[in-house]
């Protein structure tokens, strides 16, 4: 089961960019995914975007929650909550809060980014340690990267290295573009998507030791539409279920018009 949640992490890692601004983010946006094994629903994941005010500044907050369905909690419990606070002017992370429980594995970490001094300081709440590492001026965590890529040209995304901040360390990632395909989604029909293969050195959990393929929509917002990987006892699939919130683009407008017709 742990492999399943590494897949979601891999997908979020795989959408990197160099710059972004408020146009990357839609306060009020909610995206929901379903994770299945051989067609059997195992877990769900939801990401929300909103605004908060701190010290007189309006900031963007992303929050991702992932949990297994209750029927499977006795096999492998997953209860993850990840929150990142972002400067909307630069699309750079200011604060990253990890609270993960996956089986017997627990993580509780708070990272503060200082882009001016090019440092990131991580407090490990479980081990009661504090560590500061050097970063690049535009270093992002995986959750802001997926949003800032919305402003990039497709050709600028592929076949070059990216530096990512993950759990207190910096890692390299590369993206390889494959064929285009229409992905069938429950609330959107067949959506034109680009197949992407992420390659990373990352902890040996995935990518180099087992291929993960995912698809990103060609439509606005470049949503991850599908993720697939093989495991020793079958195939895991992650699919986008719906996007709600502000806007009138394909994702929100399409669903709103569909509901009016019902």
Strand content: over 45%
Mean pLDDT: 79
- Large-scale geometry: globular
Question: Could you give the count of β-strands?
Answer: 15
Read across the widest sheet, the strand sequence of neighbours is 8-7-6-5-4-3-2-1-15-14-13-12-11-10-9
Broad structural category: mainly beta
What descriptive keywords fit this protein?
15-stranded mixed β-sheet, disordered N terminus, 262 residues, mainly beta
What does this structure look like?
With 262 residues, the protein is mainly beta. It has one domain (2-261). It is 12% helix and 53% strand. It has three helices and 15 strands. It has helices spanning 2-13, 142-148, 250-261, and strands at 30-37, 40-54, 57-68, 79-87, 92-102, 105-114, 119-124, 129-134, 140-141, 162-166, 169-185, 189-200, 212-217, 224-231, 234-244. β7 (119-124) and β8 (129-134) form a beta hairpin.
């Amino acid at each position: 089961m742990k492999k399943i949640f590494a897949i979601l992490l891999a997908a979020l890692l795989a959408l990197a960019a160099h710059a972004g601004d408020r146009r990357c983010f839609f306060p009020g946006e909610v995206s929901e995914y379903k994770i299945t094994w051989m067609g059997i629903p195992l877990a769900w994941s939801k990401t929300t975007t909103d605004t908060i005010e701190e010290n007189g500044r309006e900031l963007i907050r992303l929050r991702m929650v992932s949990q297994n369905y209750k029927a499977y909690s006795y096999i492998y419990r997953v209860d993850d909550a990840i929150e990142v606070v972002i400067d909307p002017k630069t699309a750079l992370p200011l604060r990253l809060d990890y609270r993960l429980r996956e089986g017997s594995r627990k993580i509780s970490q708070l990272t503060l980014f200082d882009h001016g001094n090019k440092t990131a300081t991580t407090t490990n709440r479980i081990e009661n340690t504090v560590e500061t590492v050097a970063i690049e001026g535009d270093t992002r965590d995986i959750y802001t990267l997926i949003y800032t890529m919305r402003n990039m040209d497709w050709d600028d995304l592929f076949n070059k290295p990216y530096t990512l901040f993950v759990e207190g360390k910096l890692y390299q990632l590369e993206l390889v573009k494959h064929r285009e395909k229409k992905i069938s989604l429950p609330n959107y029909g067949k959506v034109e998507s680009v197949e992407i293969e992420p390659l990373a050195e990352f902890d040996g959990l995935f990518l180099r030791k087992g291929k993960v393929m995912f698809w990103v929509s060609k439509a606005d917002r470049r949503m991850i539409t599908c993720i697939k990987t093989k495991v020793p006892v079958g195939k895991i699939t992650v699919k986008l279920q719906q996007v709600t919130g502000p806007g009138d683009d394909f994702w929100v407008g399409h669903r709103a018009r569909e509901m009016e017709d019902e």
